[in-house]
Write a structure and sequence with these properties.
- Belongs to the HIBADH-related family.
- This protein is of the alpha/beta class and 295 residues long.
- The chain folds into 2 domains: 161 residues, Rossmann fold (3-Layer(aba) Sandwich); 122 residues, N-(1-d-carboxylethyl)-l-norvaline Dehydrogenase, domain 2 (Orthogonal Bundle).
- 48% of the residues lie in helices and 13% in strands.
- The chain starts with a strand and ends with a helix.
């Protein structure tokens, strides 16, 4: 068992993931650009490091959970990045939602420095992270994945092995996020149709989530959309726009038409333009309500 883990990024997802690692018996060295966000995990037993590079554990594992590709590259291969300090055999377990190409770029960097990179984005909101119920994707070298699996299992309920290409996990993650956005838009339009016919939209949500669509996305987001409850944000809408951009970039690169992704992109962009970027990404459905004259 890896005894000490480095962890970078203590936002809505990172902090509960650190708590899960602590509960599993790991010692965790944490770094966050905003030190105040580390207070909760420090109180629970994590060790704060003052300098980013100090999260590197000799021959060990460093986990990153940051907001975007730029942040991931900065903390890894930037001037003060921890990637320069990783020793031979160390593993970077990247759990952020980033582009497949960013994962491949970082994997190449680590390969040149005799360390390893495992892409490992997750499905699940902060409450799932707190309950150790995340679904965790994993792609990279087999030996590195074998070492990281117990750490991943400490944070989630299932780990999906997606092969050796480090970009594979990110492809599946982006596809999944696109499907969530599509489902949210479909729910909004159906609930609006019910409401315009005098039917309680909460009742409509319950019917759909209890019958044809009895699944995590419809049960979780259905209630939020039906009740127009978009704060506090579990996942900010501006990050949803970032992910939709990544989906379209990958679609363009692979010549894969995704017309509905383009529609969702414009809906997300309009939402951010209206000042809703900090609301939950389910607030993208407010555009449909406005178009129906319901908001």
């Amino acid at each position: 068992m890896e005894k000490t883990i480095g962890f970078v990024g203590l936002g809505n997802m990172g902090a509960p993931m650190v708590m899960s690692l602590l509960k599993a018996g790991y010692r965790v060295k944490v770094y966050n650009r905003t030190p105040e966000k580390a207070e909760t995990v420090i109180a629970a037993g994590a060790d704060r490091v003052e300098h980013l590079a100090d999260v590197a554990v000799p021959g060990g594992i460093v986990i990153t959970m940051v907001s975007n590709d730029q942040a991931l590259e900065e903390v890894t291969i930037g001037e003060k990045g921890f990637g320069h300090k990783l020793e031979e055999g160390s593993i970077h377990l990247s759990m952020s939602t980033v582009s497949p190409e960013t994962s491949r770029k970082l994997a190449a960097f680590h390969g040149k420095h005799n360390s390893h990179y495992v892409a490992s984005p997750v499905f699940g909101r902060p409450d799932a992270a707190a309950a150790q119920k995340l679904f965790i994707l994993s792609s990279g070298s087999s030996k590195a994945k074998e070492r990281t699996k117990p750490v991943q299992e400490a944070m989630g309920q299932r780990v999906f092995d997606l092969g050796e290409d480090p970009g594979n996990a990110n492809v599946i993650k982006l596809g999944g996020n696109f499907m969530i956005m599509a489902a949210m838009e479909a729910m909004a339009e159906s609930f609006n149709l019910a409401e315009k016919n005098g039917i309680d939209r909460q009742v409509a949500a319950e019917v759909y989530a209890s019958t044809l669509f009895n699944c995590t996305v419809y049960n979780g987001y259905g209630s939020m959309i039906a009740n127009r409850r978009f704060e506090p944000a579990g996942f900010q809408l501006e990050l949803g726009l970032k992910d939709c951009n990544l989906v379209l970039e990958e679609a363009n690169a692979k010549q894969t038409p995704m017309p509905f992704a383009s529609i969702l992109h414009d809906t997300l962009l309009a939402s951010v333009a209206k000042g809703r970027g900090k609301q939950d990404w389910s607030a993208l459905t407010r555009i449909a309500s406005e178009n129906a004259g319901l908001e």
